[in-house]
Amino acid sequence: MECDNFNLDGYAYDVERAKRLLAEAGYPDGKGLSPLELWTSSKSETVRKEHAAIKRYLERLGLTVHLRMASSWKAYKRDIIGKRPGGIYRYAWHADFPDPYNFLYTLFHSASPGNYIHYANPEVDRLIDAARSEVDQQKRERLYHQAEALIMQDAPTVNIVYYEIERLFQPYVQGLDVRSMSESFTRMERIWLDR
After folding, report:
1. Quick one: which of 20, 23, 41 has its CA closest to 33?
2. pTM greater than the 0.85 cutoff
């Protein structure tokens, strides 16, 4: 099912708008807002650089940001993800199967155990539930697009990274159908060597 919603714009980097929203919320220039904690369990240099950049962006708004490192993935999942109200953390999601349900229900439906951000929008739930039971693929896609638009409007998460997967193989490898999902979707029985 092709379900790319190209009609949605991503979130723009807009310092002035962010400052206005903070002021409207009662925190002009970040005054009165508790320090933010930005958590990760990854020790990679790339993640450290990402977090340092996020910290700089937030500090431009007058916010105080503390970078935090969990001792392990187990501790991170147990103590951080979804457990710290107002906390910010890095979390990656890779789909188990190629369907919008695997993203929208899993991450944003209020009844999903994978909704670690505790996002709840009854209209989003209704649209996702309707799409789950819809057999007409075009209607199903429209329902998911509507849910996605509401989620983008609510902005419960900020998606900062999309990893690309690159594969290298010899020109004599034939029948390889490279999928964006993962190697688990590669049909090995269709691959052959032409030497």
Report:
1. 23
2. no
CA distance 67 to 75: 16
pLDDT digits (tens, 9 = 90+) for 13-68: 889 999 999 999 999 999 999 999 998 888 899 989 999 999 999 999 999 999 99
Judge whether 181 lies within some domain: yes
Name 66's bridge partners.
Answer: 37
Report yes or no on 157 lying in a domain: no
User: Of 138, 109, 139, whose CA–CA distance to 123 is shortest?
Assistant: 109
Task: With respect to residue 186, please indicate whether it lies within any of the assigned structural domains.
Answer: yes
**SS3 sequence, the chain?**
CCCCCCCCCCCCCCHHHHHHHHHHCCCHHHCCCCCEEEEECCCCHHHHHHHHHHHHHHHCCCCCEEEEECCCHHHHHHHCCCCCCCCEECCCCCCCCCCCHHHHHHHHCCCCCCCCCCCCCHHHHHHHHHHHHCCCHHHHHHHHHHHHHHHHHHCCCCCCCCCCCCCCCCCCEECCCCCCCCHHHCCHHHCEECC
Number of domains in the chain: 1
- Residue carrying the six token digits 């002009």: 28
Q: Is residue 116 in a domain? A: no
